[in-house]
Amino acid sequence: QVQVVESGGGLVQPGGSLRLSCTASGRRISAYGVDWHRQAPGKQRELVARIFGGAMTTYVDSVKGRFTISRDNAKNTVYLQMTSLKPEDTAVYYCNIPGLGTPWGQGTQVTVSS
User: Fold this and answer.
1) Which of 99, 96, 114, 83 shows the shortest CA–CA distance to 39?
2) CB atoms within 10 A of CB 103
3) What DSSP assignment string belongs to 78-112?
4) Strand ranges (DSSP E) for 2-45?
5) Cβ atoms of 66 and 81 closer than 8 Å
6) For labelling alongside 29, which of 4, 36, 77, 82 has CA 20 to 30 A away?
7) Tens digits of residue pLDDT in 40-82
8) 3 state SS of 61
């Protein structure tokens, strides 16, 4: 079964940047779409960004122009580059590969605070 591990979260000040990584094991994922989701305390999990099997990407409106999703097929990894971070970006971030039915990982905590 394919599993994913998220990493790269941390505490950052407003306006700062972080790069999250989603590394898959068990199968090559280059042909599959990969999603980044986030869940803030007391809120439902929301889809933040998606990269399709090629290079096409989509973003939720609240992160457009600030977040960039990309993939490194050699490393079997998908990244989420986050810039101009805001306190409302604080959440646990998860990645998922819908086409492979990957189980949810533990996520990585992102906290934006001064």
Assistant:
1) 96
2) 9
3) EEEEE-S--GGG-EEEEEE-GGGTPPP---EEEEE
4) 3-7, 10-12, 18-25, 34-39
5) no
6) 82
7) 999 999 999 999 987 899 999 999 999 999 999 999 999 999 9
8) helix
Distance CA 100, CA 1 (A): 9
CA distances from 25 to 4, 30, 47, 77, 100 (A): 6, 12, 22, 9, 12
pLDDT at 105 over 90: no
Which CA distances in Å does 110 have to 6, 31, 33, 54, 95?
11, 28, 23, 27, 14
Q: Which two tokens stand for residue 14?
A: 């407003």
Q: Which amino acid is at 75?
A: K
* pLDDT attached to residue 79: 98
Q: What is the pLDDT of residue 53?
A: 87
pLDDT at 81: 98
Report the pLDDT value the prediction gives residue 10, as an integer from 0 to 100. Answer: 98
Q: Are 69 and 61 in contact (CB under 8 A)?
A: no
